[in-house]
Amino acid sequence: MKKLAIVILNWNGAAMLRQYLPTVLAYSRDEATVYVADNASTDESLELLRSDFPECRLIVLDKNWGFAEGYNKSLRQIDAEYYLLLNSDIEVTPRWLTPLLSYMDDHADVAACQPKLLSIFERNKFEYAGASGGFLDRFGYPFCRGRLFDTVEEDHSQYDDKADILWATGAALMIRSKDYWDCGGLDGRFFAHNEEIDLCWRLHIRGRRIVCLPASKVYHVGGGTLPKSNPMKTFLNFRNNLTMLYKCLPESELQSVMRWRWLLDYVAAWETLILNRNWGDFRAIYRARRAFKRWRKDFEADRQAIQTSRVAEKIPEQRRFSLLWQYYVKGRKCFSELL
After folding, report:
1. Strand pairing report for 80-86 and 172-176
2. How far apart are CA 16 and CA 12, in angstroms?
3. pLDDT tens-digit map of 141-160
4. How far apart (Å, rounded) are the C-alpha atoms in residues 146 and 155?
5. C-alpha–C-alpha distance, residues 248 and 257, integer Å
């Protein structure tokens, strides 16, 4: 069994691989085996990997399975103590793996961890997708140390302490292989978006810890294969977030939170239409609500199994306040103002 396998899931990302894979190989080869799992790319990704990066282990999938199931199918082919799921648009730094490996080796109760994510384009700022560790508010809205909604903070080392978090970003997620498979891996039905939050929440329910270790830092392009304004991204985020809530919320909170989300989601839909004239996102939110209602019954067994595995009713990293109220009414735009 290998100690650590870094696995980059690629789909038509030849340009990103050409630019950022060299740093991964240069700063990781002594501590990890690097894999690229290709989700049936139609660009020159495979040719590039075979000609320019022969030291990478290559896994070729038969079709684009999406982020979640693409990783599941790839990781089943790898025997390692730790997996590190890494986006293709990540620039790593010297000795970035050392703090992650050391902490995981020394803390058996920790299932997963992440480094600090900074923006490649504004290197003094956090990056949206994970910043310095993620949390949820009472209604399921994700936020980070360093990012609330669209407000991203500059990094002044204000979140450089090790911290227990609710979720670690899927852009650079180190996880014990045993924990990954014990709780079923990423939910492949999500395809993409919210899948790492769902996974980390399920780990918490089982009594496992997730941490951010800012002594390790990486730089992230962000945005992935879908731009932020893409209606498909909006659809996946809303549908998957509702599904995650249905699976993971304790019985005492489920009905109340789902009623509030019904109201808040439709307010969000009309806000995008009236204020932004965004018909695509407006329709995407309505479609997401309908899609969740149609497939909710498919997750009844998942919900029962997850709730049966629960070791504590409350998880401290799921905060009890409303982020919408804190951000829009109280005007609190920085994570430190929430505490």
Report:
1. antiparallel
2. 9
3. 999 999 999 999 999 999 99
4. 8
5. 12
